[in-house]
Amino acid sequence: MSSIVESSADLPDEAATLAFAASYAKTLVAPCSVALIGELGSGKTTFVRGVLRALGVVGSIKSPTYALVESYDTAIGEVHHFDAYRIDGRDDFLSRGGFEYFATDSIRFVEWPENLEDSVVFDRIVRFSFEGTGRRVEVDHLGENRRS
Ligand SMILES: Nc1ncnc2c1ncn2[C@@H]1O[C@H](COP(=O)(O)OP(=O)(O)OP(=O)(O)O)[C@@H](O)[C@H]1O
Ligand SMILES: [Mg+2]
Question: pTM of the full predicted structure?
Fold first, then answer.
């Protein structure tokens, strides 16, 4: 799939991930589906937590590993945070009601999107990798121009 790398950044520590997430939050407009790619522990959940804090969420922000999805009312509308780590393909996601969230005027972040087997069309990708004790992030915008 072709894509444009819009930007990349070094994130030397968790605070840097949170600061990057806060600036990324300013670019979000619903509807939007964002794939979060990166190995275990690469910072995907930390990034979503930073986005949600920047959007005014003040309560606890849990990793949705067991619940599949955690949803939040934010300054720019509903944000759904998925962790598909335990999802076993498209049919499993369908039977858990996952696709319903993609039919609404909301923002969706998905950790482990590989497990949905290309059944969701993403507008953006955020990729995390390890670099020393920190992380590196790359941001791609794929399909937002399709709607305009
Ligand atoms: N830029 C960074 N530099 C160093 N550590 C970081 C950075 N960003 C996040 N971390 C730390 O990495 C750890 C794992 O982060 P996180 O849970 O966000 O990863 P994840 O990609 O969601 O993992 P999983 O795939 O298991 O859900 C946390 O302890 C977090 O504080
Ligand atoms: Mg996570």
Answer: 0.94
